[in-house]
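ligand=alpha-L-arabinofuranose
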Amino acid sequence: MLAKIVINADNKKGKISKNIYGHFAEHLGRCIYGGFWVGKDSEIPNIDGIRKDVVEALKKIKIPVLRWPGGCFADEYHWKDGIGPYESRPKMVNVHWGGVIENNHFGTHEFFELCDLLNAEPYICGNVGSGTVQEMREWIEYMTFDGESPMASLRASNGRKEPWKLKYFGVGNESWGCGGNMRPEYYVDVYRRYSTYVRNFGSNRIFKIACGPNTNDYNWTEVLMREAGKFMDGLSLHYYTVPGTWERKGTATNFDEEEWFITMKKALYMDELITKHSTIMDKYDSEKSVALVVDEWGTWYDVEPGTNPGFLYQQNTMRDALVAGIHFNIFNKHCDRVKMANIAQTVNVLQAVILTDGPQMVLTPTYHVFDMYKVHQDAELLDFNIDTPEYMVDSEESIPQVTATVSTDDSGKIHISLCNLSPKESITVECELRGANVNKVTGTILTADEMNAHNTFDNPNKVVPKEFDEIKITENKMVITMPKMAIVGVKACI
Ligand code: AHR
C-alpha cells in the first residue's frame, strides 16, 4: 500500500489556533469531583484542593483553554451558589447527571485558580436556560469589574480584590436541547438580549459565543448567522462520534473491525459538518470574523459496566487515539474558520485524556495524541495534497486510509502528523517536499497490536508514544513506513 503526499513548503494556509487543542470540564460524574478537585483536606496531593498530578499532566500537553461548568449543567448552574465559605454554599441536585448532590465546593474562584495553574484561558458557559439576564450580567461584573461596584465588593469579600481576565463566554449551552428546547427563531432573540448584557468592563474584552447547531442542523446556523451574526464572535457546534445508536452506543473496549470502521467513518463526518456549516457562515460573514467553536466533540459509548449511567465513564483505546487524530487533522484543515475545539471531556468523562481512581491516575491513548499534536498549536498550516488508498471492511463503503496535517512552526521546522486508520494494513507514505530540502528528521509513533489496546491503572504504559525511525530521506522526499492503526509525528528540519 502506498500513499503520496505533496507538500508545498512555501504556501502557508493560515494559523492553526492553539485553542483547537482545547478542553471541556463539566460538573458531571467524576470530572470535577475526584478528577480535578479533591478538596484541601484530601490525602491526594493538591494545591488548594486541586489535584497536582492532573495539573502536571495537563501542563505537559499545554492545554490552551478550558470550558466550564457545562454542558447541560451550565443551564442549571447558579454561580452565586459557588462562592463564599464552603459551609455556607447551598447544595443542589445535579439532575442531568446521576441526580447526585452537588455541594458547590468547586466554583468561580476555584475554576480561575485551576486555569491559572494550567496556564489555560478560562471559557465560561452562562446559564440561559434557567437563569436570568441579571444573573448573567452580575457574574460578568463579579469576574471582571475593576473598581467599586456591588459585585466587585462581593468578590473582594470572598478574598479576590483584583478582577480576573475573562475572554471566552458562551451564552447558553445546547439551547436547542437540554438548555431550553428552543427553536432557532426564539433562541436567536434570546441570544441577542442576553449577550447585550455580557459587558466589557474596563480593559476586559469578551469573545461572545452563541449556542450553535446540533450536528447537521443547518437551519440553526442559517437563522443564527442571519439574525445575530453581527452580535457574536463565535458560534458553537456539537458533534459526538457514537458508533451505534443513542440507545445502544456500543462499548468502549469490546468491538469488532466493523465497529472500528463505523467509528472512523463517523469521526470523518466532522469534515462534512464543518464544510457545510462554514458555507452557511460564509454567506453572512465572508470575512470569517465569526469563529466556529466546536466546543464538544469526542467518542460516546455505553458506560463501563457497573458504573453510574449518569456519570458517562468510559475506557479509551487505540480506536479513540485515531478518532482524536482524525479530528485534529480536520480542525487544522479548517483553521480559517475553526478557531477553537474542546474535547468532551478532560477527566473521567467520555473521551477523557485522563482517568483517575482515588489517588491513581492513568493517561489514555487520547492524551498521547494531544501530546503528539501540540506542535501544531499556533503553527502555520502548509498546503499539501494527499493521494491515499481507501480502507474498507466490505466492498460497500470505504474511507481514506491516511489522513494528515502538515504545519511549520516559528523556527521553520515542518511537522507532519499522519494517521493510518486501517487496523490490518501497514502503509508506506511518500512525502514530497516542494520548496525545501530535508536535513534531518525525528519521529514519534503511537500504535498497538490490538484495536482495543488501552491503558489501565495496573498497566498504564500499554499504549504510549515511542521513538520512530522508519523514515528514509532522499533530498526532498521522505518515505515513511507506518504500521497498521498508527499515528506518526515527523519533525523535519530543513
Ligand atoms: O458532554 C456531555 C453532554 O453532552 C453535555 O453536557 C451536553 O452539552 C452534551 O449533550
